[in-house]
Amino acid sequence: MTEDMAAARLWLSRIHELPIRESIAVMNVCGGHERSLTMLGLRAVLPETVRLIPGPGCPVCVCPEEDIADAIAIAMSGNATLVAFGDMLRVPMNASKDAINTLAGARAAGADVRPISSPQEALATAREHSERQVVFFVAGFETTIAPVAAMLAEGVPDNLSVLLAARLTWPAVNMLLQDPEAALDALIAPGHVATVMGAEEWRFIADTYHLPVAVAGFTAVSLLAALYSVLRQKLENRPFLDNCYPELVRPQGNQRARRWLNEVLEVVPANWRGIGVIPASGFGLRGVWQRYDARQRFEVLAAPRKRIGEMPPGCDCAAVVLGKRTPEQCRLYGKACTPPHPVGPCMVSDEGACHIWWQAGLRAA
């Protein structure tokens, strides 16, 4: 038995020793956490009284379809090369039956759309094709956006611009906790975001909402340690912020990354697909950096669409993101909506709960 396996079993045994007599609902905010929890099969080995609920931790899932429409329109104009993280190419938007509704569809129709995996690839594409405009379509949370801000701060070619669909994580959690239907007993805070922004950003959950909260990493040991912490906090009625990822997460986070975010970007209201506008939950380019805003550089009008801003008919992705439904409770899950033919965004991304559950073999009842 490895040391990590022994440690994980120890934390699991401690969880089972807790006198949990009533159901406790724990939301894991991060899509990466959901992937680890599901692929490790942790739900199956926890007490039946512990419910793990996926939360709003997938930036692809909440990217507004109007941003996707703008990206498609820019790509189809023929005036630019559009690059985006791979998941974004397959996210569908609402459109008429014969219209292009994904970036992958635009690429198939002849648009110059390229999947990338890092800001450095966007920069390399712009330098390689200096005679052509290159648009970097960026959907992501703080962890993804900090390197983009650093890229801009360090200097980019004039032919590179960004189409931002960037979001902050904590305002969505704050909005969710204000909803009386949320019915959550504790939260596991996202380790990657806390690595950038700091563990202290999540203290409001304990201080304002009097709920247990722990920052976790992505191993079974860290996740089970965080679960034990919040369950014990709940039983003892002693909510506080616990950092169960101290090897990477500091109280105030990564100061250099935060300086890049503050220098290049400003916090703005932002629309979350199927959810609506959440105050102070998005990033926009600040001051001199606005010259790299693709929306200012291109005068492109997206084609008229139906159900603007909504999920497709029958799709419950917004409810899944908000923890109000689990994936298999969606009416389309595993029927009309599967990874090869996604209807909603939660079935597209590696951080989408529906995609994760399907990959893990969890099928509709």
How is this structure best described in words?
It is a single chain. This protein is an alpha/beta fold and 365 residues long. It has three domains: 3-57 and 170-243, HypD, alpha/beta domain 1 (Rossmann fold, 3-Layer(aba) Sandwich), CATH 3.40.50; 60-168 and 253-297, HypD, alpha/beta domain 2 (Rossmann fold); 317-359, no CATH class. The protein contains 16 helices and eleven strands. Strands 2-1-7-8-9 form a five-stranded parallel sheet. Strand 8 (213-215), helix 12 (220-236) and strand 9 form a beta-alpha-beta unit. Helix 1 (3-17) packs parallel to helix 12 (220-236) and helix 2 runs parallel beside helix 16 (353-359). It is globular. The model has no long low-confidence stretch (mean pLDDT 94).
Major sheet size, sense and barrel closure: 5 strands, parallel
- What's the N-to-C terminus distance? 35 Å
Which structural class do the helices and strands define? Answer: alpha/beta
Tell me what portion of residues adopts beta-strand conformation: 15-25%
Q: What CATH first level of the largest domain would be assigned?
A: Alpha Beta
CATH topology of the largest domain: Rossmann fold
Largest sheet, order of strands side by side?
A: 2-1-7-8-9
Radius of gyration computed on alpha carbons: 21 Å
Sum up the overall morphology in one term.
globular
Kindly give the count of domains.
Answer: 3
Distinct helical segment count: 16
Q: Give the number of DSSP strands.
A: 11
CATH superfamily of the largest domain: HypD, alpha/beta domain 2
Round the mean pLDDT to the nearest integer and report it.
94
Uncertain parts: none
CATH architecture heading of the largest domain: 3-Layer(aba) Sandwich
Q: How do the SSEs run, as a string of H and E?
A: HEHHEHHEHEHEHEHEHHEHEHEEHHH
